[in-house]
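Q: Start with the shorter request: fold the first protein.
A: Done. Sequence, then structure:
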Amino acid sequence: MKIALTGATGQFGSIVAEVLLKTVPAGNLVASVRQPEKAAELQARGVDVRHGDFDQPETLDAAFAGVDRLLIVSADGDNETRVRQHKAAVDAAVRAGVGYIVYTSVADAENSSLFLAPVHRATEEFIRESGIPYAFLRNNWYLENEAGSIQAVKAGAPWLTSAGEGKVGWATRRDYAEAAAVVLAGDGKDSVIYELSGTPATQAELAAVTGGVLGQEVAVQQVDDAAYASIMAGAGVPEAALPIVVAIQGAIRDGALDIKSDDLQKLLNRPLTPLSEGVSQLLG
């Protein structure tokens, strides 16, 4: 069985590859990457490294050839670019005769108010229309997304948020990636949706976890969106990114990431990495 990973040298895909190599023969793994030279370590371990670029769809036909199970890691960039790239990957999977697609989506993709959600809704629809069986991994929020806040608190700042009492199902990137590896290495052939989430918690609760790790009290500063944008701008967030960071806070406030599900724990067949452990790792 050939398992292919897009984004195999990225933050998420590299963990998936590392986990799969513990149980899957390297010769059964394909790494589809934009820059094959960056996958030299995987190649040295026996992984079949192929050039595959979402912006060069003709490269994807060869990258996906002979593949039984394919992980499509959602791309970076603006929404229009990502939709185009994801469509190219799905179309190539159809041409290559891929048997199963595993796609990293977002929590509650159909209904989410997150700015990211339209890309994932569109991509899920492309995959459904392809006729290829699938697993949608609807990842909630990476704890790593809060690294800036955690480091700011370490430096003595308050925990800043405009998300109010909105809850987030934080889990570590490694937990999400290990779950993807479980699905890829399995023999499931039915279409399935996994809502992958940690136990929902508020910003104040995550701030308290961070304080516990640091051994200090952490003040939580709740502000409105305008004040949040202003403070983030002062902290060096680029102007183009300000609407995005504010929109994330608003979506959290609206409950977009307040997802209760034990799918992640079931796939991992173990308890999730405690938030305190994840915070400790981010603090170095």
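Q: Next, the second protein, separately.
A: Sequence, then structure:
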Amino acid sequence: MPALPWTKGPHQPTDGDALHVLTSRLPLTNYSDVPRFLYWTMRIRAQLQSAPGCVGFALDAKLVHKTFWTLSAWSDKAAMDEFAHSGTHAKMLADMAGRIGNPNFVETAGSTADIPLSWAAARARISPPKS
């Protein structure tokens, strides 16, 4: 599956605005969970397209490694937290409980100059957990 490109969200920041950036690495525990995760991915993308404070988002799937990477930018941490605990995303969290191994989440500051966010920069911010 190719990476899904950067998609603009409904929040349009003005030049120079500070942004809240989330990078995540989500390793699934079993290959059989990949279709379920993809099901949720498409629904969460729809939620993101109308999420207050969402500047934009992208997804990269490494199916051979059953690992998904997410990248999103927000007006602030409160907007991101509200999204994460509401609607489809909240339902996905409940449904996928126990199906995701050791996820990594890195929250950083960004600016409008960083948009669209870069996968190279995202991967530099987050590294796989050490075994």
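Q: Describe the second briefly.
A: Residues 4-11+30-125 form a domain with the Alpha-Beta Plaits fold (CATH 3.30.70.100). The radius of gyration is 14 Å.
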